[in-house]
Amino acid sequence: MLVMTKITRFFEQLSAENQNVMLDKGTEIQAQSGTVLFSEGDIPEYTFLILSGLVRQSKMTADGKEFSVSLSQKGELVGETALFNGLALAVTATVIEDARLIRYQRQELENLFEEKGEIAVAFMKWSAIQNQSTQSKFRDLILCGKKGGLYSTLIRFSNSYGEKHKDGILINIALTNHEIANYIGTTREGVNRIMSELKKDQIISYENNKIIIRDLQYLRNFLQCGDCPVEICTI
Fold first, then answer.
1. Which CATH number fits domain 140-232: 3.40.50.11270, 1.10.10.10, 3.20.10.10, 3.40.50.300?
2. pLDDT band at residue 6, thresholds of 50, 70 and 90?
3. Which of 85, 109, 155, 204 could form a disulfide with 104 if both were Cys (CB 3.0 to 4.6 A apart)?
4. Torsion over CA of 147, 153, 156 and 161, rounded to 10 degrees?
């Protein structure tokens, strides 16, 4: 029997009172798909809380190719890595699905964390998990090659955006092979080949251009997955 584990996002960890504090302290804005919230190398000015929509964070490689680092959703912060240090931002954040956001001045949010212990603790817990997730992504890419990186990325998308389906797990966002390739630093052609093999072997299938993982255990076995918390294995 397939059991889907719910992931608790930063905002969901807060009490109702402190959720309202977070909502009141910032400025609500609307951002259309394609909006760049900040760019790699920018001096940090704002941090954002996602209320709806999707925000992709990416880096440019030395040869000018885009490498997707993460895909953030409702309840998560974006631009938080600059809090309490003021260092230049290491990624570019782009809205890829129309979003509703709360925008905070960096100093304003730092002051709020100092005033509200529960919010600060929730932030530290969430940040620690994000760091572990990033480390595990690069571990899979380095130790398991491009195929392992692709399998890991599919598992991570299933944990972050998966829904139960009669044939397995439906990744409920549209993903092109080019977009998947950007998450593992390879070519679209390489992803095309591996995805075709997985489809032929009935490990995955498609429905309305969305991926269904039919045999998650096959992917996990290839990666020799342990029993790490699902929160660490996210995109």
1. 1.10.10.10
2. low
3. 109
4. -130
